[in-house]
Amino acid sequence: MNKATIINKKANGDEVSTEQEQQLATDLELISLLRDNADILQRHPELLAVLEVPHVTGQAASLIERQVAILRQQTKTQDERLCALMDVARDNERLATSRHGLALNLLAAHDLDEVISTVLDVLSNELSADYAVIKLFSDEGERITQSPALFVDAGDKALSAFKIMLEQKNIVCGKSTSEQKTFLFGENAGSIKSAAVIPLVTGANLGLIGLGAEQAERFTASMGTDFLMQIGELVSASLAIHLEDRTTGE
User: Fold this and answer.
1) Which element (helix H / strand E) includes 206?
2) Are strands 131-138 and 194-202 parallel, antiparallel or unpaired?
3) Residues 6+ apart with CB under 8 A from 231
């Protein structure tokens, strides 16, 4: 290849590049003009006879047909979003009603046993948990002996599995460790595929609520925890009152 040929090829490449740049500039100018004159086809319908509007299937279609297809897709997308928002709103309303009902029942509870049964009933029904347990911490050996299913030794080494959660007062949803599941659910631990753990804290660590499900998708790390947090606060406040009553013998 001689020098003249190389020069000619380079020149031709520059010409192609220049033509592409000019075409791009022209396209951008036309796009800007069309946006500024959205009614151009109404004022000049004759343009429809020369415009080329390719269909996604490769078949010819009118501009109106194409516009209708786009509008239908946009409407479908908006409807789907609206339905999703309505589902969320209905779910939030249901949870708010449940929370209100729980608060009233806790206020009406006469003793600790009523508090525990009320909480477990609400959580099992409203959150579709296959297993629901409450573990309360205690330093009193007699209380632990009398109600071993409810009270656990506050110094139990098994509680180290919940150390960070209790320190940070965080609710955990999703997969739990085998130690956590064994502590909370005992012989049912092997059936638990997902769980939610709610720390009960009012100044001091009172205990834990454990919710277990046999479905891995029931409690996930991405689910909202506001409802669970509010439940934990309500239950903690009620427990603190009734635990104090037991301590003072009232």
Assistant:
1) strand 204-213
2) unpaired
3) 99, 102, 119, 122, 123, 198, 209
The CATH fold assigned to 111-248 is Beta-Lactamase (3.30.450)
134: left (phi over 0), alpha (psi -120 to 50) or beta: beta
135: pLDDT strictly greater than 90: yes
Q: Which amino acid is at 123?
A: L
192-203 b/e (C-beta count within 10 Å ≥ 16 → b): bbbbbbbbbbbe
Which residue in 142, 139, 120 sits closest to 130, CA to CA? 120
Hey, where are the domains in the chain?
Answer: 1-38, 54-108, 111-248
The whole-angstrom separation of Cα 82 and Cα 52 is 35
Alpha helices (H) along 109-213: 112-126, 141-146, 163-168, 178-185
Give the per-residue pLDDT at 124: 82
pLDDT value of position 7: 46
pLDDT score for 134? 93
SS3 state of residue 178: helix
The sheet that has 204-213: what strands, in order across it?
Answer: 151-153, 131-138, 204-213, 194-202, 172-174
pTM, two decimal places: 0.62
Closest C-alpha to 200, from 184, 214, 177: 184
Both tokens assigned to 1: 């290849």
